Amino acid sequence: MSSRSKTISLLLNDGARRGSYLRAKLNQLIPSQIKALRLRAGWTQHELGDKADMKQARISAMEKPGEAAFSLETLIRLAAAFRVGLQVRFVPHSEMLDWENRYSQDDFSPVPIEKDYKFLNPVGYSVAQQISKSDWVVASTDKYLKAVPQPSPISPDRALNTPALNGYSSRVEMPIEKWSNVA
Amino acid sequence: MKDHKKVIPFESAASNPPQKWEFLSIETENGKDVAVAWDVEETFESRQTFESMIRNCRTIANHLDWPNWRHKMRDEAGKLGIVELGFKADGRPYRVLIKFSGRKVIVLCICFHKGNVWTPSDSVKSAVKRAKSFNDGKVKLNVIKIEDD
Predict the structure, then answer these.
(1) Which of the residues B36, B63, B92, B148 would you substitute to probe the A interface, choosing the one with the greatest number of A C-beta atoms within 10 Å?
(2) Which of A92, A100, A126, A165 is the least buried, fewest Cβ under 10 Å from its Cβ?
C-alpha cells in the first residue's frame, strides 16, 4: 500500500485525521498569504499592525505557521487592511489540494479594491472583455486594419443593446462584411 | 483563416508554480533517512504540515521570505551554515535544521526546540555532524517526496 493510499484510507475513516489534514494546510497557507500581501504592499509588520489595529507582535506570530489562532474577525480585519476580499467556503478536498498546488507566495497578488475594475464597473468590464475577444479577428489582418473604421468607444448602455456584441458568431460577422467591401 | 485563431494555453500547462528550491534529506551512515525517520515523534498532522511547508517554501525564491524561516544558528552550527525552520503541529514546536547548497536545501534533522531546550538534546550536535559529513561528500542524499504532488 502506497503512502498516499494509506493517507486516503485514514482520511476516509477518521474524522480527527481529516481535521489534522485541513489544519496542516491552513496553518501553512494563511500565514503565507498574509506575508505575501504585506511584502507586496511594501509594509513593515508594524505598518500592517497600525492599519489592522493589531500589535506588531501579533502580526509576526500570524506570519509564522501554527503560531497564531485565526478568528474570522481577524481575517476580516486583515482583508480590510489589505483592501482585498475574503472568501471562506467549504470545498471538496480535490479543489483545496489543487489550489494549494497552484499557490505560490511569490505570485500571490489579489488586486486591491481601487484597481479591481471588474468590481468597480462590472458592466464596463464585460464590454471591455468582449471587445478584446473580437480584437483578435481584426488585429490579425493588418493590411485591412487601416481601411476598416475602428469602433468608437461604446458606452455600456449601448453595448448591451448591440447584437454584434452579444455573442461570438454575430461579432465575427461585423469585420468580415467590412473586409469584403474593402477587397 | 489560420491567422485568425487565438491560441489559448491549456490550464494544466501553466498551473503549477515553478519550483525554485529542491529539498533533499540526508541518509545517515546507518541507512536512516532523516526526513523519513525523524529524530522526534512524527504524527499524522506533523507529517502533513512538514509536506505543506516544503510545498510552499520550494516556490518562494527568497528564502528569507519563507514563513517557516526562524534564524541562522550560532557558533559552530552557524559557521557550517545551518538554519532553523519551524512549524507547529499537535501543539508541539517542530524544528527542521537545514543547510543550503546552491538551490538545494539539505534537511539535517527534525526535532523540537522551545526556549533553550532541544529534543532530542543532541539535535544540534547531530545536525553539525551530518553537515560536516555532507561537506566531506560522505553522505547519500534523497529527494524528499511529497505525497500529493
Answers:
(1) B148
(2) A92
Task: Tell me the C-alpha distance between A100 and A106, whole Å.
Answer: 14
Q: Is the CB of residue A38 less than 8 Å from the CB of residue A15?
A: no
CB contact under 8 A, A25 and B52: yes
| pLDDT over threshold 50, residue A58 | yes
pLDDT above 50 for A130: yes
Per DSSP bridges, beta strands B104-114 and B22-27 are: parallel
Using alpha carbons, select from B101, B69, B74 the residue that is nearest to residue B87.
B69
Query: Is A144:A150 a contact under the CB 8 Å cutoff?
Result: no
For B6, which residue in chain A has the nearest alpha carbon?
Answer: A136
Return the SS3 of A18: helix
Please check the confidence at residue A176 and state whether its pLDDT lies above 80.
no
ipTM of the complex: 0.86
Please answer yes or no on whether A101 and B6 come within 8 Å at the CB atom: no
Determine the pLDDT at residue B17. Answer: 83
Quickly list H helices, B65-115: 75-79
Q: Does B135 touch chain A (CB under 8 A)?
A: no
What does the pLDDT average to over A171-182? Answer: 40
Q: CA–CA separation, A65 vs B63, rounded Å?
A: 15
Residue from B146, B99, B133 nearest B28 by CA:
B133
Tell me how far apart the alpha carbons of residues B81 and B136 are, in angstroms, rounded to a whole number: 14
